[in-house]
Amino acid sequence: MTLPDSTTWPVITPADRDAVLGVLSDGALVSDRNEETAVDRLETEWAEYVRARHCIGVANGTIALELALEAIGVGPGDEVVVPALSFVATAMAVVNRGARPVFADIDPVTYNIDPDSLRAAITARTVAVMPVHLHGLPAPMDQVMEICQAHGLAVIEDAAQAHGATIEERHVGTFGSIGCFSLQATKNLPTCGEGGLLVTDDDAVASRLRQLRQFGEVIERGRPRKYLSHIVGHNAKLSSVQAAFTSSQLRRLEATSECQDRNVREFLTALEPLAGLHVPRAADPRARHVWHILRFRIDPGVAGLDRSEAGPVREALQRLLRAEGVPVTRYQLIPLSDQPAFSDLPPTTANEEIPVTRAVLADSFVLQRRHLDPSAAPLLRQYAEAFHKTWQHVNLVPALTASRRR
Ligand SMILES: *Cc1c(COP(=O)(O)O)cnc(C)c1O
């Protein structure tokens, strides 16, 4: 069975189309012209929105992470602590700098980096920490900043999934030295393709990031480009078309987020009564969750089974829900540390045990994207009904897990 799904993400309005077509007609196609471009405008708007001194637009969220690490001087021999549950880009950016990602465990309720595990991951080689505001929920920045200040470590925030998320009104991305956002089309603030934004309050870091983005050159508005490369940089520029689309989306980001928040809260409240289902929540009342991904944990006890059966119980429930038309999937099949690409990392003296990450990956599934469309409320009500129906048949789960084992 499939439920009729009229939701889309990103939602593309006539205003978004006009913004893109506007770039085509005014001819400012590249960001290195003398006059102000759509990229400059987006940078100003995003800096204002998150209340940062500087914003630098780049080609994607991954290169934003890499340039951030490069701007603060991370290189070979260094270690950077990252959470073991994230998109691969978080750790890959570190490896691409020639540095060693060290994997910290996560919190079992928020899925964000666990401060105690972060402490255990610090060695004499550690130079920076990259907290990820996973699924749209701010990482515990009070504790992360305290630990990093005590050890003299830089903080680079991976806010790719958390545009508009705040802790006491302060935007994620503005706690550490540099905040990195992705504008990739599936994110909460999308572009019509690929893009990224960096924010920082540090003038020197901002100019370094601008140089790194464009061949180490210094680009000054109103002056001809000199083609002088002061440092070795990259071509990591954001395109004007992408920027104009995102500016148009940004105009309604707050309204969209509020609508998403209402829809998701109604949905999660409807699921609250289901035994053994842990729905996502913002554990810290001061944090604003922007619900990029909804992760659900399953307690195998609900089907009369124990912890060792968590994976099979989760899988059986996932199959039952999918049969009812709820497109639950998994987000990250393995911890970052198990990615084949990272199998040859140099040794570290850090403690890299990540039991919580492993447990969460075994016993949880996610809903993605459908809930981001502001018109998703009716679909989410159908999903909630399907969850209730599935839970009425939870007694089937032991048989299903047994048949899988045979
Ligand atoms: C999407 C994402 C990235 C990478 O962003 P791209 O724009 O796709 O390169 C990095 N970190 C996290 C947590 C992400 O979700």
Describe this structure in words.
The protein has 406 residues and is of the alpha/beta class. Helices cover 37% and strands 13% of the residues. It has 13 helices and 13 strands. It has helices spanning 14-26, 38-50, 61-71, 88-96, 115-120, 141-151, 203-213, 240-250, 253-271, 310-323, 355-363, 377-392, 397-405, and strands at 54-58, 79-83, 100-104, 126-129, 154-158, 166-167, 170-171, 178-182, 196-200, 277-278, 287-288, 293-298, 364-368. The strands form 3 sheets. Strands 1-9-8-5-4-2-3 form a 7-stranded mixed sheet, sandwiched between helices. The chain has a 3-stranded antiparallel sheet with strand order 7-6-11, with no helix packed on it. Helix 6 links the parallel strand 4 (126-129) and strand 5 (154-158). Helix 3 (61-71) crosses helix 4 (88-96) and helix 3 (61-71) crosses helix 7. It is globular, with a radius of gyration of 22 Å. It starts with 13 loop residues before the first helix and ends with a helix. The mean pLDDT is 95. It binds pyridoxal-5'-phosphate (PLP).
